[in-house]
Amino acid sequence: MNSEYSEEIAEAVTKEKLVADFKVVVADAEELLRATASDTGEKVAAVRARVQDSLREAKERLAEVEAHVRAKTKLAARAADDYVQENPWKAVGVAASVGLVIGLLIGRR
User: Fold this and answer.
1) Which pLDDT tens digit goes with each residue over 12-48?
2) In whole angstroms, what is the distance from residue 15 CA to residue 62 CA?
3) How far apart are alpha carbons 50 and 32 in whole angstroms?
4) How far is CA 46 from the centre of its chain?
5) What is the value of pTM for the model shown?
6) Residue 100 pLDDT > 80, yes or no?
7) Rounded distance, CA 85 to CA 70, Å?
8) Cβ neighbours of residue 7 closer than 8 Å, sequence gap 6 or more
9) Contact 34, 48 (CB under 8 A)
10) Which of 7, 40, 48, 89 is found 20 to 30 A from 71 (Cα to Cα)?
11) So what's the pLDDT on residue 31?
C-alpha cells in the first residue's frame, strides 16, 4: 500500500511539473506576441526559438505522463475488478461503510 501511495505522490508531482512547464510555454508565447507586435529581427528569432524548445519539451513530457497515467489507470482498474470478483461481500461492505461515513459527514452540515 505504501508503494501505491508513493506512486500517487510521484504522479501528482509529475502533473505539477507538467503544469509548470505549460506555464513557461504560455509565458514564452506571450513574450513572442509582444516582441512581434513592434519589432522583428534577432529578438523575435531568439524568442521564437525558446518557444519552440519549450513547446517541444512540454509535448514530450505530456506524452510520457499520459502514457504512464493510462498504464497506471488500467492496472488500478484491473486490480479493483479482480478484488471485487474475488471478494464481492468485502467490496459491498467497504462501499457501504464509505457511504455511511460520507452520509454522516454531510448530515453534520
Assistant:
1) 667 777 777 777 877 787 777 777 766 667 877 787 7
2) 9
3) 9
4) 30
5) 0.49
6) yes
7) 22
8) 72
9) no
10) 89
11) 79
